[in-house]
Backbone:
C-alpha cells in the first residue's frame, strides 16, 4: 500500500532496512541464544547517523519525528525485535528529557545519545507496581541540595547497559501520584547498582535488569521538571513512545509473514507447494489484512502526533494494541504454516513468536491500553470521565 513517504522518510526506511538485512539478520539467532547485548549494532547505527533520529539537530540529532523513528524501528524489528529494542529503549529513556528537560539537561545528555556514545533507559515499574504504576515505593528525599534515592526498580529495558536512566520516585507520599518526581541518574553514581539480568522468553538480545538504589545521592539539578510532575512525565512519555512498541510489533510480524510466504511457496506436499492449498492461502490473506490495518493505524497515529496534537493517549494506545495483537496472531500463524519446522530454532519464526509476546505486555499491558481508550471515548461522548 502507498503510504506517501517523503524522499527523506523513504531514505531512512531503506537505510534501516539494509542494516537489518545485512548486519542484524545474520546475527539474530546468535544474539538470541547467547543473550548478548548488541553493542556492535549500535555502532553500526551510530555510523549511519541514525542513533539521534528523534533528537533535535542542535543537539546532534536529525530532528525527525515519531513517524521516522517508527519507520526505523519497524525495519530493524523485521530482522530482530530484541536488537531493535536497544535503540527503541534508548528513545524511551531520553524522551522525558526531550519533553521536560531544561536546556542545560538537554545540552548535557542528548548529544551523547545522538552520537551513539551513550544509551538510555526508562525506569517506572517495581515488583508491586506494574499496571498500577501509582503504587511505586522508590523514594527520593531532598537532603542538603541533593536527593537521596532508595528503592528497587524492576524489568528495566537496557538495564545495566545504559548510561543514562530516567527514574520515577516518590518525593511526597501524602500526595499520591502528585507526589511523584522524575530524576536523571547516571550509571556510575555511588549507591546505584544492578540486580540480575533476567532470562526472558523473547527479546533476549535486550538486557532487562533490576535497578537498586541504596542511599544513592543525585544532584538537585537532575530533577526533571519540578517536584510532583513525575507521574505526568511518565504518562506523557509513554504516549509518545507507544507507537515505537507498535512499530516493533509490526516489524516482528512482517518478518514472520515474509518467512511464511517464502516457505509456503517452497514447501511441497501432496505433489504441490502448500501455497496452492486454500487453507494456507486464507491464512496468508488474513495475515496480510491484519498487517496492513495495523500499519495504516500506526502511520496515521505517528502523523497525528508529529502534527502537534496535544491529546494523543487514545490514538497511541490504539496503535499499540492493534499492532501487538496482530504480531501475536501473525507469528503464531507463521509457526503453524511452517508446521514442525516452525517449532524448531533452525527456522526463525519461533523466535519471532517469542519476541512478539512482550509487545502486548510492556509500556502498559493491552488490557490497560483498552482502559485508556475506553475512558477517552466515554469522555468524548459524555464530556466527563467515569
Residues:
Amino acid at each position: 500500500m502507498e503510504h506517501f513517504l517523503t524522499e527523506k522518510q523513504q531514505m531512512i526506511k531503506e537505510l534501516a532496512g539494509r542494516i537489518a538485512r545485512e548486519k542484524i539478520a545474520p546475527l539474530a539467532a546468535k544474539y538470541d541464544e547467547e543473550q548478548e547485548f548488541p553493542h556492535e549494532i549500535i555502532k553500526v547505527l551510530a555510523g549511519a547517523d541514525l542513533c539521534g533520529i528523534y533528537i533535535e539537530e542542535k543537539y546532534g540529532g536529525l530532528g525527525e519525528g515519531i513517524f521516522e523513528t517508527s519507520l526505523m524501528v519497524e525495519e530493524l524489528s523485521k530482522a530482530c525485535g530484541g536488537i531493535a529494542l536497544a535503540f527503541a529503549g534508548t528513545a524511551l529513556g531520553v524522551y522525558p528529557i526531550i519533553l521536560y528537560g531544561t536546556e542545560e539537561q538537554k545540552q548535557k545528555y542528548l548529544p551523547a545519545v545522538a552520537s551513539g556514545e551513550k544509551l538510555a533507559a526508562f525506569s517506572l515499574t517495581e515488583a508491586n507496581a506494574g499496571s498500577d504504576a501509582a503504587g511505586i515505593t522508590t523514594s527520593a528525599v531532598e537532603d542538603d541540595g541533593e536527593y537521596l534515592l532508595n528503592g528497587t526498580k524492576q524489568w528495566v529495558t537496557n538495564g545495566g547497559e545504559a548510561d543514562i536512566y530516567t527514574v520515577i520516585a516518590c518525593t511526597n507520599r501524602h500526595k499520591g501520584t502528585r507526589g511523584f518526581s522524575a530524576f536523571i541518574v547516571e550509571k556510575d553514581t555511588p549507591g546505584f547498582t544492578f540486580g540480575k539480568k533476567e532470562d526472558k522468553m523473547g527479546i533476549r538480545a535486550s538486557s532487562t535488569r533490576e535497578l537498586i538504589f541504596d542511599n544513592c545521592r543525585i544532584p538537585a539539578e537532575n530533577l526533571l521538571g519540578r517536584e510532583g510532575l513525575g507521574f505526568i512525565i511518565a504518562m506523557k512519555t509513554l504516549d509518545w513512545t507507544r507507537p515505537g512498541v507498535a512499530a516493533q510489533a509490526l516489524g516482528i510480524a512482517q518478518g514472520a509473514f515474509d518467512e511464511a510466504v517464502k516457505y509456503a511457496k517452497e514447501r511441497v506436499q501432496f505433489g504441490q507447494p502448500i501455497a496452492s492449498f486454500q487453507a494456507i492461502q486464507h491464512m496468508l490473506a488474513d495475515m496480510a489484512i491484519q498487517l496492513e490495518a495495523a500499519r495504516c493505524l500506526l502511520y496515521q497515529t505517528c502523523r497525528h502526533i508529529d502534527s502537534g496534537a496535544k491529546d494523543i493517549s487514545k490514538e497511541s494506545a490504539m496503535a499499540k494494541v492493534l499492532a501487538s495483537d496482530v504480531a501475536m496472531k501473525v507469528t503464531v500463524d507463521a509457526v503453524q504454516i511452517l508446521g514442525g519446522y516452525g517449532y524448531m530454532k533452525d527456522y526463525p519464526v519461533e523466535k519471532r513468536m517469542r519476541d512478539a509476546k512482550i509487545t502486548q505486555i510492556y509500556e502498559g499491558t493491552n488490557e490497560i491500553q483498552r482502559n485508556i481508550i475506553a475512558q477517552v471515548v466515554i469522555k468524548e461522548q459524555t464530556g466527563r470521565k467515569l
User: Anything to note?
Assistant: The chain has a mean pLDDT of 96.
